[in-house]
Amino acid sequence: xxxxSFIVGSAAARALTQLQQLECREDFSEIRTVELLNAAxxxxxxxxKALRSDAAEAQACLIHxxxxxxxxxxxxxxxxxxxxxxxxxxxx
Length: 92
What we know:
Elements: H1 10-24, H2 33-50, H3 55-75, H4 88-91
């Protein structure tokens, strides 16, 4: 068996650590995929606002968002995902 190894920067390592912590939460299975995507979007907005004034806050927000995106990506069943998504414009 061949194992692929990666060398990642500290931000990526923090994101992977946070992802593991997120996936170990007791309520993780109750968090909907769309909620993970919404949390990631919110984190990106906060990072954008903090970018000029607080680099550490911007980085923390981006890492938080990345963990939520990775968790959502891991849940997507590539064969069935399109069946479960509605266009937001059609819901209005």
